[in-house]
Design a protein that fits this description.
Layout: E1 4-7, E2 42-47, E3 50-57, H1 59-74, E4 82-87, E5 99-104, E6 109-111, H2 112-116, H3 122-141, E7 144-145, E8 154-159, E9 162-167, E10 174-175, H4 181-204, H5 214-233, E11 236-238, H6 242-255, E12 258-267, E13 274-283, H7 285-294, H8 300-315, H9 324-341, H10 353-371, H11 377-388, H12 403-407, H13 410-417
Antiparallel strand pairs: 1-4, 2-3, 3-5, 4-5, 6-8, 7-10, 8-9, 11-13, 12-13
């Protein structure tokens, strides 16, 4: 059988060395990116200006998973995008080789397992598990039964101060019009069992922080899943103020990041009360609002943070009567775009533009707290680009220098950068150029990984009661947008 590629209309795929087993592909094709455990051979491959993931498996499974991912993509589920299935592979000697499933690499992402192996702080660990709970709920709402939930089958992306999780392996999955309670419970049981087992494995190899209890993390995943599922699907009964109750339910779902497209309202048999039941719930409420206002396509919590900053910008505008759409355009061209353009191209592979803007806002607050006066956004951006971004890895989540060191340069930065950005044509350049570029092949042996704490000693940082994961204060945000 001759080589056959089905899927994306990309003629360059045929130029890859399909006649060689994937594990023996030349280094010139391989992108050095972290990956989770897999029962199959998986490699990240440099392809054009991007990266693709290639997984060897049998042809039937590859075609089924490709179709499953295509359907999930159509449903706008958080998952990797399928590219093609390659079958009919043979070696130069005529020996048949396994088929291959090709998917896009999710830029700025890492496997959950790679993160857990770094000895994460307890609070960060809780947010990661929370993101996985949200992913499982979203998939179940779409009628998708995963069947193999695990740390290695999910990817994460930094999403403002939280994380977003993405499905990366749909081999065992199946889509139904609606999942039964039994199917959901089975999937949830598999999730808690697999994740607890993987954490015990990391604990056995001393790659897990001593303060992490694998069984507690598994229980937290189940508890968070049930809370979210109940909030999105439960039926409530009310005897008065029905209009207010419906508005409150819609507001609650919006705050969780979900849109309510339809709702069922039924009178009780005795006519004294009304039951309210969400019917069609869809994730991405803040994403869609930000996209409508600015055209920015970002993740849900990033969108929430950017909308809060937009609302604050509008509130402090010299023109209080400025309507929302005009304020959004002005915010985009005078605040967001100059900030992300300030990052040198050499550093744009570290974080997404929206994540950079979020971290600059946090950095600005830290500087203002330490300096005891307001710090302009241009000055905070210059400080962040100079002091923080160059010294942090893609997955690093701490400030790289002490506040005393950073605030010592504030007078010079203020004098150099002023308080406002120089006006410029917002469309002169593509502000996303070179973000997430393809990593170059490693020319030397990878460094030895050592376990160490990521906590950075910081002086004079006010404590905030109730913060679990860090001693740092929580930057204030504007009220959550609706």
């Amino acid at each position: 059988m001759p080589l056959h590629i089905s899927g994306a209309a990309d003629p360059a795929l045929i130029e890859l060395p399909w006649e060689i087993p994937l594990e023996a592909w030349p280094e010139e094709h391989i992108a050095a990116l972290p990956r989770g455990l897999s029962r199959h051979v998986v490699r990240f491959v440099r392809h054009g200006d991007g990266v693709i993931a290639v997984k060897e498996t049998n042809a039937e499974i590859a075609h089924r998973e490709f179709a499953m991912l295509r359907e999930l993509q159509r449903l706008e589920a958080p998952c990797v995008h399928p590219v093609a299935v390659v079958s009919g592979r043979t070696s130069p000697s005529g020996e048949p080789l396994s088929a291959a499933l090709v998917t896009e690499h999710l830029a700025f992402s890492l496997p959950y397992r790679a993160l857990f192996a770094q000895g994460l702080r307890q609070g960060t660990l809780k947010r990661l598990v929370g993101a996985l709970s949200v992913l499982l709920v979203r998939l179940h709402l779409l009628g998708f039964y995963w069947g193999d939930v695990s740390l290695s089958n999910a990817l994460f992306r930094r999403d403002a101060s939280e994380f977003s999780a993405y499905l990366v392996d749909a081999e065992t999955g199946d889509i139904h019009p609606r999942l039964t309670n039994g199917q959901r419970e089975t999937d949830l049981d598999i999730a808690t069992t697999n994740i607890t087992g993987e954490l015990l494995d990391l604990q056995g190899s001393e790659d897990l922080d001593d303060g992490v209890d694998p069984f507690e993390i598994g229980a937290r995943l189940e508890k968070r899943y049930r809370e979210l599922w109940s909030a999105l699907t439960e039926t409530t009964t009310h005897t008065s103020n029905i209009r207010m109750r419906v508005a409150e339910r819609v507001r609650q779902l919006n705050e969780l990041g979900f849109d309510l497209d339809e709702i069922d309202m039924d009178e009780t048999e005795d006519g004294t009360a009304v039951t309210i039941r969400p019917k069609v719930v869809d994730a991405g409420y803040h994403q869609r609002r930000l996209m409508r206002l600015t055209g920015l396509d970002v993740q849900e919590n990033q969108a929430r943070r950017l909308l809060n900053d937009l609302d604050e910008f509008r509130a402090w505008s010299d023109n209080p009567d400025l309507d929302e759409s005009h304020a959004a355009h002005e915010w985009l061209t005078t605040m967001f775009e100059p900030t992300v353009r300030a990052v040198p191209r050499a550093l744009r592979g570290k974080l997404e533009p929206a994540q950079v803007y979020h971290e600059v806002l946090d950095h600005r607050w830290y500087l203002a707290e330490a300096a005891d006066h307001d710090v302009s956004l241009p000055v905070a951006t210059a400080s962040y680009v100079k002091n923080i971004l160059p010294t942090k890895d893609d997955e690093q989540a701490v400030l790289g220098r002490s506040l005393a060191e950073m605030t010592a340069e504030l007078p010079a930065l203020t004098e150099e950068h002023g308080h406002t950005y120089t006006a410029r044509d917002p469309y002169a350049n593509d502000n996303t150029y070179a973000w997430g570029r393809v990593p170059e092949p490693e020319e030397s042996e990878p460094p030895t990984v050592r376990r160490s704490s990521t906590r950075i000693p910081v002086t004079h940082r006010p404590a905030v009661p109730g913060r679990e994961d860090d001693d740092a204060p929580t930057p204030p945000t504007a009220p959550t947008t609706e």
